[in-house]
Design a protein that fits this description.
Elements: H1 6-9, H2 20-71, E1 85-87, H3 92-100, E2 128-130, E3 142-146, H4 156-159, E4 162-163, E5 166-170, E6 179-181
Antiparallel strand pairs: 1-2, 2-3, 3-6, 4-5
Length: 185
């Protein structure tokens, strides 16, 4: 008598591993869950960078105001009473850093620091300092960046910033609505 009979052998068959369909379903579920997590993580990163931008500009503003207290004027942006700026994505930021060195250890730069453009253009992330009033206009300045969060309550489209030399004239309408202004006016 043979140890295995054909009719008894089939009852001893062992199932090993997963089928291809089962593996594909698991991979699809993992892919869906990871895309959901990455999407929410990206939103958190955007908000974190915007929070850093606002805090950086607050620190820069404190240093600028300390400079003013000691000198009775704000640091130049290459000229006074003119439309000139220093940007964190160019070497001109080093000049501002030198002016503010006694008041701030290291002048921060935008977390993204897009090169080749100012914060008034869409998707251009840089810090800017300029448009400094001294003799013709009252002592004021612009300290500006662009926020990434399209729903931020601190962006220009919500705040409706005005020119310091003409308070009745809103300026963000001509530029990106994502501008954040940390100036003193």
């Amino acid at each position: 008598m043979s140890f295995f009979h054909s009719k008894n052998f089939s009852s001893y068959s062992i199932r090993r591993g997963f089928t291809l369909i089962e593996l594909l379903v698991v991979v699809a579920i993992i892919g869906l869950l990871s895309s959901i997590v990455l999407t929410s993580l990206n939103g958190a990163r955007v908000k974190a960078r915007d929070a850093k931008r606002m805090e950086d500009l607050r620190q820069i503003r404190i240093a600028i105001e300390l400079f003013y207290d000691d000198n009775n004027y704000y640091p130049s942006a290459g000229c006074w009473d003119c439309n000139n700026y220093r940007y964190s994505n160019t070497g001109s930021w080093d000049s501002l850093a030198a002016d503010l060195a006694p008041y701030i250890k290291s002048l921060p730069e935008d977390p993204v620091n897009t090169s080749g453009c100012g914060p008034w253009q869409t998707n251009c992330f840089t810090y800017s300092y300029g448009n400094v009033g001294r003799t013709t206009y009252s002592p004021q300045y612009d300290l500006t960046t662009q926020l990434e969060d399209q729903n931020s309550p601190y962006r220009c489209a919500v705040k409706q910033y005005r020119y310091y030399f003409n308070a009745s004239d809103p300026w963000c309408g001509n530029y990106s609505g994502q501008i954040y202004e940390a100036s003193s006016y």
